[in-house]
Amino acid sequence: MKKLYIKSYxxxxxxxxxxxxxDVLAPLGFTQAEDYIDSDMVVLNTCHIREKASEKIYSELGxxxxxxxxxxxxxxxxxxxxxxxxAQAEGHEIFSRAPFVDIVVGPQSYHRLPELVAKVxxxxxxxxxxxxxxxxxxxxxxxxxxxxxxxxxxxxLSIQEGCDQFCTFCVVPYTRGAEYSRNVxxxxxxxxxxxxxxxxxxxxxxxxxxxYHGLGLDGETxxxxxxxxxxxxxxxxxxxxxxxxxxxxxDDELIALHGTEEKLMPFLHLPVQSGSDAILKAMNRKHxxxxxxxxxxxxxxARPDIAFSSDFIVGFPGETDEDFAATMELVREIGYAxxxxxxxxxxxxxxxxDKESQVPEAVKDERLQQLQELISHQQRKFNESFVGRExxxxxxxxxxxxxxxxxxxxWMQSVHVKDGEAYAGRLMPVVITEGRGSSxxxxxxEFASDxxxxxxxxxxx
Length: 461
Ligand code: SF4
What we know:
Blueprint: E1 2-8, H1 12-25, E2 30-32, E3 41-46, H2 51-73, E4 79-84, H3 85-90, H4 92-97, E5 103-105, H5 113-122, E6 131-133, E7 154-158, E8 160-161, H6 172-175, E9 180-181, H7 184-196, E10 201-205, E11 213-215, E12 221-223, H8 224-231, E13 239-243, H9 252-260, E14 267-269, H10 277-282, H11 289-302, E15 307-309, E16 311-314, H12 321-334, E17 340-343, H13 361-384, E18 390-398, E19 405-408, E20 414-417, E21 427-435, E22 440-444, H14 450-460
Parallel strand pairs: 1-2, 1-3, 3-4, 4-5, 5-6, 7-10, 10-13, 14-15, 16-17, 20-22
Antiparallel strand pairs: 8-9, 11-12, 18-19, 18-21, 19-20, 21-22
This protein binds iron/sulfur cluster.
């Protein structure tokens, strides 16, 4: 058996793709390793969304190179591959900056990794820039990928890729290509395989997932709402999530489904990026802040206990104090369960990168700090509101401490429970005993004695 180390950077789509790369390489005798030390092959599955992200790759490659050199001295070797969005964006430049890299492969052609490995191993393409594939192939990789191995209780399932929105700060349309929706039978087959391998929860992935429009069984085109209803019929599947959505593609059928489909979790990641109409326009988001408010309002009407997360960029070119104040105002109004916030990072090849009115770093730092303080405050308040409440948790991983297990509530909160190993991989009712900044602590109801349970539940009354 050959050892394969795959490191994923960035989004859940990359995590999904890394799993599929392991499935593609398994027939060549590669099994996954926890570390690159002593590995026969290393794949860095990269993210290009921010400058810092892509620069990180080259420093990581420097460390891996030393291990490759060490193995060479012992008569061994190592294949180094760079995959993902940096591979797609930088291509041959990676070979010139890091000539010890053997393979460069884009997100749409990693199903051809076996051929690229063969090129390196038997056709002397080691370290000479020949093993590269950045195609957007006619035939989708999904048609050529083996069945997923899966095995987790919570799994990702890619249903849509690419994006046609062309927000002026974003590289995705250039690195992942145009929107492509997989057909329903293929998705359904993969969902069945994953649930047969133990998945209870599926997160449907897409760069613009709610723009999904795939071919159905009878050749008709169906949207995300219909696809979710279809998948919800799988008895073993208890929870469905989807990410990442665009406000423009939250159609009324999908919104209404949040009120009717109990397997659809009451938590939605809905990026807005800014609260200022002027900045939303400059970002080419194609909607204003009021439009976003209305979508949130409709969702809360359909499912009153729904909670939201979002993405925010501060310091977008031209952002004034008033624009930033509008973002803060929107965040206060919506009240997020959690949210991601970043300083604007000019990406080569994106329209916003060439804009004159770049915001000074110090101003970006100041605004980011203010925004993150507000978001953390909201997240802690949201978590504290769960103390004394009972909620269902899917336990999918070990905790830091002996006997501790961790899982996710329906609202995507991280929940940890002591002495719960027996419940790993199961959906269990938990009474929440503590709400913290980014997690909850609780006790499995079955464990809590009646008096303890009543005391805990009474705490909130
Ligand atoms: S919708 Fe999302 S993925 Fe598409 S261009 Fe905009 S930010 Fe990028």
